[in-house]
Amino acid sequence: MPGRKALKRIAEALERLSPPPPALPSFAEAEAFVWHTGPDRLEPVEKVNRVDLRLLVGIDRARDTLLENTLRFARGLPANNALLWGARGMGKSSLVKAVHAEVQARGEALKLVELHREDLPSVGRLMNLLRAAPHRFVLFCDDLSFSHDDEHYKSLKAVLDGGIEGRPDNVVFYATSNRRHLMPRDMIENERSSAISPSEAVEEKISLSDRFGLWLGFHPCSQDDYLAMIRGYCAAWGLEIDEEALRAEAIEWQATRGARSGRVAWQFFTDLAGRHGIRL
Known about the structure:
The protein is an alpha/beta fold. Helix content is 46%, strand content 12%. The chain has helices spanning 4-17, 60-74, 92-105, 123-131, 152-161, 185-194, 198-210, 223-236, 243-257, 262-275, and strands spanning 32-36, 41-44, 82-86, 111-114, 137-141, 171-177, 214-218.
């Protein structure tokens, strides 16, 4: 018979192998949380890094569609999972966070939970945790994509399909990606050329994006939209500058970056505000 100390060590080892489920956090203390593993926990976010919905220019259709879908979900009505895909720096993740703030401003109780891509294998445990909570959640995964040997997409399928239990009624899933099918085109072509059953190999992976009810595309912005973004920032922070000077500086800035986007517009405005002594 093992001694008392040996039994204690065995019990501690078993507990490390199968730890108890995490306790629900106090959801009243924050509007947003980040999911971490090792150990599993939801950490509250004191202040969400986001911009006002009205400052997101040039993405009107995506803005209105995502806002309406989120409002329906917050009110307990049917809503779709959403994939925001397309050009870098055009406000995909900013839109998710801004829509969440707008829904709250309209009096709807809604929590935002960020799930990091590398933690996708733990999503089943997170879903079980949220299922038991008396709140409604937008589960958000930013910059989602997969490589040819990446098996994480199978975990995501479970989120979108829900498995035998179904997706919790109080959770909707939003993801952003630069790729419409969540994986590079050369990988898809490689699957076609090397697989024994090419159509099935490709179908298994590209069908992942089909499981999102909403596809919202984001495309490179025009020069007019780029300038409108900057003017909106100037108006919001009360920065006064001659229109011709602003236009010339903004165009020169984007030329040095080799691209126009919402991110480039914000980077220019950050520089401009710093030079004019305005705190953001």
